[in-house]
Amino acid sequence: MRLHLGYVPLCDAAPVIAAHEMGFARAEGLDLELTAEPSWATLRDRLALGYLDAAHILAPLALASALALSGPPSDLIVPLSLSLNGNAITLSNPLWATMAPESERLADVAGAFARMAGARREAGRPLTLGTVHPFSSHTYQLRLFCEAGGLDPAAVRLVAVPPQHSVEALSRGIVDGFCAGAPWNAVAVAAGLGRIAALGCEVAPDAPEKVLAVAPRLEGAIPPLVRAVAHAGRWCADPANRTELAHRLARRPYLNLDPHLIARTFEGTIVLDGPGREREAPDYLRLDAAAQEPRAAHVGWILSQMRAAGQMPAEDLLPAAEAVYRPDLYAAAGLSPA
Amino acid sequence: MSDTSLTVAVIDPSRARAAILEEGLRAAGIGRVVVMADTADLMERVAALAPDVVVIHLESPSRDILEQMSGVARHVERPVAMFVDRSDATMMQAAVDAGISAYVVDGLRPERIKPILDIAILRFNAFSRLQRELSEARGELADRKLIERAKGILMSMKGLSEDEAYKQLRKKAMNEKRKIADIARAIVTAADLLG
């Protein structure tokens, strides 16, 4: 059976790409046609309107689409979580130098950022930070980063920066920093423009990141698709496969970037700045089996973040949102326990 | 239609396609049509122009910038929203087929937006039809050149007439259930390697 899957070219699209490249889909009798989508909005619309059968999508955007908060109404469901964590907050080198935090601990970094952002707000020139889409864990992680330093998130301007524009936006001063998924923070650091200030896994440990959203009309094809992508995700999480995975992702038509830069993401060895200071973060991007169950707790976290960000109508959408996540379909796929 | 009070921004990674839409909207009497380049400072430029409608191609990575400018971002003075006409699923489908999405200033009435989308759908479909025809024509021309070269090779190597050379190509193609151009390409490649 032929299925059309959309993804955005990022490291955490690895499970859907590996499902195709490493034969996990074929083993389930599926023939995947993968398309790289140019934006989250277009991926969401193509999925909602039936041009895609399934997609690698931001967990909050999947819920927002199903709840008719973003884009055309959709009936998508989430039978599998693809990843936890994976983002980082990169600040421009000049901003980092001015902040001069006492240590690299999150509390000190966020505190120093909050003081700068507060001063700039007072001066009528608020700092500008880039996210990837309003309905993203990136948006919420930037807000939580502000709050970790005691800053009201409304004190900074939040704009969207398509990841491929992030380096240019930083170099031209269009943004003072951004939160993006791998490998875009590493790209900004390698370009000598930014300093990774905080990792997503420190700001919000084990935050739901990407999910596999599928159209319910696939019916019987859902369990084999879940098995194929879940097995692929577990293959990606195995340290023995990192080199091969990084090389496959690095190629066209996928990420088309330096494989060494991509490999570091999966190793959890994060280069923070130009001089090459490193941080070991084994949970930087989690693709392992324990990250795969679509949990009600994730829905709860996302909805509370949406509410805090002023993205929610007054009515209680939690029951409707919980119905979008389908741990029953994950269980029905018959995967070995995590 | 003539809606001279409206400002429409057009964002499209293809300049040619954007120009075709711009011309269409102007001809329909839209007051102000501005084509914007898809670069990193797009948000500032959109905010400065303050258009009533933004027509953006689905292939543009900048769509997420416009989504962030929607109601959720409090600092934006004129919030925009993605135009989704829930009462008209056919039109939504036609827009996506043509590769279009639209963002509108909150509160703009759907009947003022629909004619703009109709023009965009017509123009973009016409553009992709032209592009398809052009690439077909280019392909045919390239095929014809290949066949000419292959005929020439057969004529000089086997001492055939032009007509006999073509008949041999056609016979081989029929026997192997392939296109004549494919056989011609194989002959040209082989001759290049051996020659």
Automatic annotation (TrEMBL), chain A:
This is Nitrate/nitrite binding protein NrtA. It comes from the Bacteria.
UniProtKB/TrEMBL annotation, chain B:
This is Transcriptional regulatory protein pdtaR. The lineage of its organism: Bacteria, Pseudomonadati, Pseudomonadota, Alphaproteobacteria, Hyphomicrobiales. It comes from the Bacteria. InterPro entries: ANTAR, CheY-like_superfamily, Sig_transdc_resp-reg_antiterm, Sig_transdc_resp-reg_receiver, WH-like_DNA-bd_sf. PROSITE patterns: ANTAR, RESPONSE_REGULATORY. SUPFAM superfamilies: CheY-like. The gene is pdtaR_1. Residues 7-121 form the Response regulatory domain. Gene3D superfamilies: 3.40.50.2300, Winged helix-like DNA-binding domain superfamily/Winged helix DNA-binding domain. It holds the Pfam family ANTAR. It comes from Methylobacterium cerastii.
